[in-house]
Every structure is written in structure tokens, then in C-alpha cells.
Amino acid sequence: MDRHMINPYSTITKLRKYNASQIKTRNTIERAFGLLKKRPVLRFTIRTKMETIQDILLATTILNTI
């Protein structure tokens, strides 16, 4: 593995706990983006200002949780 990559299975207990936490967090974030991509406005590349994109992401996240 490259030196900047995290070893997913370490023998050290603290690193195992950290890796498990990181995997769980990454899976949650990937699921959230998967749900957001189902929204028509986010299916394709958004070509607009960064501030507008932030507003769009916030609005779709709020609508997804309602």
C-alpha cells in the first residue's frame, strides 16, 4: 500500500477501532450521496456558483429528511 493510505486491518486495537469508525462513517456518507443523486437536480453536473450549489444541497437534504 502507499504510505498515505490507511491500512484497513491493523493488529493494534486502537487502530482497529479507528478503522471501524472510519468505515462506518464513510458508508453513511456514501449512502447519503446516493440518496441525493436520485434527486433530478443532482443527477447531472451542476454548472453554477458554489454558493448556489451549497443552497441546492442544503435544500435537497432537508427535503429528503421530511
Protein architecture, described:
It comes from Megaselia scalaris. This is DDE Tnp4 domain-containing protein. It is a single chain. By secondary structure, the protein is mainly alpha-helical. The chain has one domain (8-64). It has 2 helices and no strands. The chain is elongated, with a radius of gyration of 17 Å. The N and C termini lie far apart (42 Å). The mean pLDDT is 80.
Task: For the structure shown, list the relevant keywords.
66 residues, mainly alpha, 2 helices
SSE topology:
Elements: H1 13-37, H2 50-65
Short description:
Helix content is 62%, strand content 0%.
Mean pLDDT value: 80
Strand content of the residues, in percent? under 5%
Sequence of secondary-structure elements: HH
| E-strand count | 0
* Assembly of the depicted chains: single chain
> Which term fits the overall shape?
elongated
Number of domains: 1
Q: Note the gap between the termini.
A: 42 Å
How much helicity do the residues have?
55-70%
Q: In terms of structural class, how would the helical and strand content be classed?
A: mainly alpha
Largest β sheet strand count, sense and barrel closure: none
Structural Rg:
17 Å
Poorly predicted spans: none
Tally of helical runs: 2
